[in-house]
Prior knowledge:
It is a single chain. By secondary structure, this protein is α+β, with helices and mostly antiparallel strands. It has three domains: 156 residues, Beta-Lactamase, CATH 3.30.450; 153 residues, GAF domain (Beta-Lactamase); 202 residues, Nucleotide cyclase, GGDEF domain (Alpha-Beta Plaits, 2-Layer Sandwich). The protein has 18 helices and 18 strands. The strands form three sheets. Strands 11, 12, 13, 14, 15, 16, 17 and 18 form an eight-stranded mixed β-sheet that branches. Strands 2-1-5-4-3 form a five-stranded antiparallel β-sheet.
Amino acid sequence: MLRTLxxxxxxxxxxxxxxxxxxxxxxxxxxxxxxxxxxxTYHVAAFTGFPEEYEQLTSARPYRAExxxxxxxxxxDRRAARIDDVLxxxxxxxWEAQRLGEYRSIMAVPLVRDxxxxxxxxVGRMDLRPFSDEDEAVLQTFADHASVALELHRLLAxxxxxxxxxxxxxxxxxxxxxxxxxxxxxxxxxxDSAVELASADVGNILRYDEPSGLYQAAAYTGDxxxxxxxxxxxxPVHPDRGTLVGRxxxxxxxxxxxxxLDDPEYRFxxxxxxxxxxxxxxxxxxxxxxVIGVFVVWRTEVNPFSDREIALLSxxxxxxxxxxxxxxxxxxxxxxxxxxxxxAPQVAxxxxxxxxxxxxxxxxxxxxxxxxxxxxxxxxxxxxxxxxVLSVLREYHATVGELATRHSGTLEHFAGDGLMxxxxxxxxxxxxxxxxxxxxxxxxxxxxDLAAGWRKRGYELGLGIGLASGYATLGRIGxxxxxxxxxxxxxxxxxxxxxxxxxxxxxxxxxxxHAAVEDRVxxxxxxxxxxxxLSRPVTAFRVRSTLNGDVAEPRG
Length: 556
């Protein structure tokens, strides 16, 4: 028996089979059986000497702690029980089993572990030959062995289940990490794992759909009919006790219906008929006190879920809730990043960095600002059709916007025919002054190609650009629902005023910017300019090109 126990791993039946066969032999009996506890009843786990029909009989009628059988009496009294002659016993009731086994004298002992009857063992003789005290002692020894086997199996099964649960949880977490936005895949992994570990027949996850106000099937596993899915997806669910989901909404805790056909409050027979369930369990998926979904599992036969299985399902429901919440947050962040990246791609990346929030709150940094405006746009807009004006603006914005981002500039805004770009924030650029000059010259040169095409259509348009370097305060500006990332400072104002003063095809730079790049650009002074809004004249430089192999377009 010990050799069998040592080599059988999780296979309990071979161990119990070896025990009952040896017990029958050493007790000089003809037949015997072992029943183990499952809930409130005891089911035959191994037998010998009985015909095959006996297993079918005891499957339909498990043993209970009662006087009608010798096994029942041993369980009831928690000690050995003997019946010298079942034909003469006034309380004996299992006549069909007696007919199959043809036994007369029988004996049973309970399998007790920690003061609980975890099973029962019985042997019988076909002739009228009562069992002795010595026989009882032998049977008790084998009962002790069987108790050890059951306990070892329980411990090994618990370890096996813990490992399986750990693998399932790991699979869910891996799925969440691998596919942040594939909620369907995550929920499917959760429901598959939960149904398997809880030994359920079918499971599904109903998720609250805000537009329709309904709880709709988000994932399911098992033999689920289309009729059932149609019922549970398109039928409004109200917080009441007539349905499992409704009752779960009311109680906001796990709801366990052992047999829906025997539940006086259950009033959804169409679902029961379409799903074929008898024992059903619903676990709420809660977020901030609101049920965002219901995790449902069921069995097609009456077989209650244990406290352990209910706790297990609650764990998986929490995982499903976490998955839904994570995806909701991921999607919200993605929407915000997408909206913000339309104006400044670097700022979208900044939000995901450790220093992002502090930078968005406001900081000071040296930047180079670039302003560009179209010349002749007002006259063009007064004479051209609106569709033509929009077409020209789209071509212009697409060209200069693409050049700004290619040179690592942050495109702050478009304003009609004008735009603003700044360099060295939020991404630091070692030589931001030269990067700004390259961008301006590339815009000027590319614009000439656009202007040539517009000139053929009778539109005379030019581009004036202003550049200035200096310190500015930068951060998020706007209001909830509409944020931009902007810069405020004298350098920004000066670049804007230089842009206003620049003629078509002209790039004007401030004196400070010119000093930073003078050995790498070809430029000439335009003297002092009286610029709108500035109290004193400003020295400016007209930049024509770069020197020493520098190019306006970045190599790529």
